[in-house]
Amino acid sequence: MTDPGRSDHVARAIAATVLGRDPGPMVTVGSLSHRVHVGADVVVKIIEAAGHSRLDREIALAPHLPTGLTAPLLASGRHRLGEGEVRYACYARAPGAAPGMGLPGVDAATARALAEQAVQRLDVLHRWVPAGPAEEVLRETLDHGGFVGRAALFAEIDALAAADRDGFVPRRLRDGLTAIAERAPLHARTVVPVHADCHWDNWLVRDRSVTALLDFEWARFGEPLDDWFFLIALSGPHRETVLDIVARATTLAPELLRAECEVRGASYLAADLRLALTHADAPAWLAAERLRQLDELVVGRNWWRGAR
What percent of the chain has a predicted confidence (pLDDT) above 90? Predict the structure, then answer.
């Protein structure tokens, strides 16, 4: 189902069946993992039946998540498409729009208000005690690219070096990754449910109020720092403000928060760079962008520029 036109036709058919009426105009929104089609009061996510299974995780978790945290799941299943088949999830559309990665165009006061509300919603998620099917899903092993421990980070750096046959990643940046790994905790805990992808493209906001957290396909057991990292790191020019809000809300020392975020940034960048160098279907922009971010992490020491 690579044709966007066919995807749109399927999404409209699914929405009409679920709603029992014509869904009205629907638009396609950007997504790296699914076809996502948005109507006035409905959202349909679609993926080929043979594609990755993360949508199934999200569907399995949806009925069990804390009330009001995310958009309600209306229906899910499979839909025949010619000789093939797609999997889908149909959600009620929550009010608002995503503020966007890096909070573009958001003023300082609004950024502070949104971050405070996001921290409160994540605290609800972290306090949730899942049971039964939801607990089983969250305990499944995921190759999420995040930090799981010092030894695993060293192994990822070694794997990146082995994959980098053409010397794309300068030696000084690999050495910088190694230095971060040497300071990393021995192990990461898996004690609370975490979203594990809560950047600002996955939040909905209306009139300076957070209305929903979307896309739970990477949710798992981890530690709150796994979510604080995404919230802080992808706040653009408001990073220091958001870091301060998280530090105050969690009573974590800012220096500890910076160090833990630095480790998580190193883990994700090493994993993404290895993927970009070894997978032919990786997006063309991925390697260059992650290399730029790694330079900011190692040479620019971006987690420490605002430290007092």
Answer: 88
Tokens at 125, concatenated: 């998620």
Residue 196 pLDDT > 50 = yes
The angle that helices 286-298 and 171-182 make with each other, rounded to 10 degrees, is 60
Query: What's the chain's average pLDDT?
Result: 94
| Residues 6+ positions from 68 with CB-CB distance below 8 Å | none
Instruction: Return the pLDDT at 1.
Output: 45
Confidence at residue 83, expressed as pLDDT on a 0 to 100 scale: 72
Average pLDDT over residues 239-256: 97
Are the C-beta atoms of residues 34 and 49 closer than 8 Å to each other? no
Angle at 252 between CA 184 and CA 178, to 5 degrees: 15
Strand partners, 42: 92
Domains in the chain, CATH or no CATH each: 4-92 (3.30.200.20), 108-298 (3.90.1200.10)
Q: How many CA atoms lie within 13 A of 119 on its CB side?
A: 21
Give the CA radius of gyration of the chain. Answer: 20
pTM comes to: 0.94
Q: Distance between CA 1 and CA 116 in Å, rounded?
A: 40
Spell out the residues 6+ positions from residue 259 whose beta carbon is closer than 8 angstroms to its own: 183, 303
Backbone torsion region of residue 103, taken as left when φ is above 0, otherwise alpha when ψ lies between -120 and 50, otherwise beta: left
Total number of residues shown for the chain? 308
pLDDT digits (tens, 9 = 90+) for 106-117: 999 999 999 999
Q: Residue 119 contacts by C-beta under 8 Å, 6 or more apart in sequence? A: 231, 245, 246, 249
